[in-house]
Design brief:
The termini are far apart. By secondary structure, the chain is an alpha/beta fold. The chain contains nine helices and seven strands. The longest helix has 15 residues, at 43-57. The protein has a seven-stranded mixed β-sheet with strand order 3-2-1-4-5-7-6, sandwiched between helices. It has helices at residues 5-16, 22-35, 43-57, 71-77, 93-105, 119-122, 146-155, 170-174, 176-183; strands at 61-65, 85-90, 113-116, 134-139, 159-167, 188-196, 204-212. Helix content is 41%, strand content 22%. The protein binds 7-(4-fluorophenyl)quinoxalin-5-ol and magnesium ion. Magnesium ion (MG) binds next to loops.
């Protein structure tokens, strides 16, 4: 994805979006990505799969790894019950700044808590923030961190029987060590949802749902 996408997207959003409306923000981002240039948001096709898993899980404590511009944070937050806690972690401060404005403009500040820093440093802090465990984790950051971060979540005691891990891009760009780990681990029950790369119907990608059975 091209350098500076997040800044060009933000300029477009500032000019066109209807404030206070998360669904309008999601549609505005998708329209930009289909008609102007594609960004590495989960997108509308895989986003629907994510929506269905969130609604099926009905989680009260959620973690997202990889905020980018805030698109999937809005998709998730839109489907969470009242008084749920949702944390999203972004290590790139420029992306985080864009996400903060997009989340604010969509009127979702009170539903989403963004943490800026490396996931490996952020994950050990959640117990101290009063999080006992996560009901759902959306993994959508650097593919080489999928496996170590899920291992760290378990080590920190942040997974409980029934916790759901949803991983984006398990085909393209792909995270083979994660897929190998989670599918051959008796502590997880995994399901693959074949789909397509965001904004590219001609490229195969998939989402993997892994339920922690402990
Ligand atoms: O969904 C995604 C897509 C891509 C990506 C890479 C290369 C391409 F050509 C197109 C898309 C990168 C991602 N990085 C982190 C989290 N999610 C990503
Ligand atoms: Mg992704």
């Amino acid at each position: 994805t091209a350098e500076g996408f997040h800044l060009r997207l933000l300029e477009h959003v500032r000019k066109t979006v209807k404030p206070g409306d998360a669904s309008n923000m999601i549609a505005t981002i998708d329209n930009y990505c289909y008609t102007v240039e594609s960004g590495m948001n989960v997108g509308d096709v895989k986003g629907k799969i994510l929506d269905d898993i969130v609604l099926e899980t009905n989680p009260t404590t959620v973690l997202e790894l990889g905020t980018f511009c805030g698109y999937s944070a809005l998709r998730i937050a839109r489907n969470l019950p009242e008084n749920s806690r949702f944390f999203t972690v972004e290590f790139n401060p420029e992306h985080a700044a864009v996400a903060k404005e997009i989340i604010h403009t969509a009127g979702m500040d009170d539903k989403i808590q963004m943490l800026i820093g490396p996931s490996q440093e952020m994950i050990p802090q959640f117990k101290g923030m009063g999080v006992s465990h996560f009901d759902l984790v959306f993994v959508d950051h650097e593919k080489d961190l999928y496996k170590p971060d899920v291992i760290l979540l378990e080590k920190e005691g942040l997974l409980k029987k029934g916790s759901v891990i949803v991983a984006d891009n398990v085909v393209y760009p792909g995270s083979p060590d994660y897929i190998d780990y989670v599918r051959n681990n008796p502590k997880f029950k995994s399901t693959n949802y074949m789909s397509e790369l965001e904004y590219h119907k001609d490229v195969v990608d998939a989402i993997e749902k892994s339920i922690y059975i402990g």
